[in-house]
Write a structure and sequence with these properties.
5 helices; elongated; alpha+beta; Thiol Ester Dehydrase, Chain A; 5-stranded antiparallel sheet; 37% strand
Length: 152
């Protein structure tokens, strides 16, 4: 994990790519839990038997928004602003789901810090260029421009 002492130091990282996150396996249990949390129980996500018979992928796939929801977790595992008391998700400028994440796939995050701006009264707004890679696949699962807030 990259440890940054404060927001002033964090600003010096603009334009730099961070080392990638660790690989994470997307299990059926994670997909099912996400379905219960969001109410999205479409069979292609939660029914392995039907997916084996009817899906073009032959197995269940993760929800696209499950992929997006992992960005916060993976970023927090990659970098720490030590002076930050808390962080918040601020939003997304763009998101694209390029490759379905089939059950038991491994994903990892590649990210570059696009900008760090002051956010009053005691925070910074960070824009990240995120690519959620899929092990063994040329195209990523998801690309997104993700925005977070850190407060000192």
């Amino acid at each position: 994990m990259l440890k940054v002492p404060d927001s002033v130091s964090f600003k010096q990282l603009v334009g730099q790519a961070l080392p990638p996150s660790d690989w994470m396996t997307i299990t059926q249990e994670m997909i099912d839990d996400f379905a219960w949390a969001t109410g999205d129980h479409q069979w292609i996500h939660v029914d392995p038997v039907r997916s084996a018979a009817e899906s073009p992928f032959g197995v269940t796939i993760a929800h696209g928004f499950l992929s997006v929801s992992l960005l916060s977790k993976l970023i927090m595992e990659m970098v720490s602003v030590e002076s930050a008391r808390m962080g918040l998700n601020y939003g997304l400028n763009r998101v694209r789901f390029l490759t379905p994440v089939v059950v038991n796939s491994q994903v990892r995050l590649q990210t570059t810090i696009l900008s760090v701006e002051d956010y009053e009264p005691t925070g910074v707004k960070v824009t990240w260029d995120c690519t959620l890679e899929l092990a063994g696949m040329e195209k990523p699962a998801c690309v997104a421009e993700f925005i977070t807030l850190f407060f000192e």
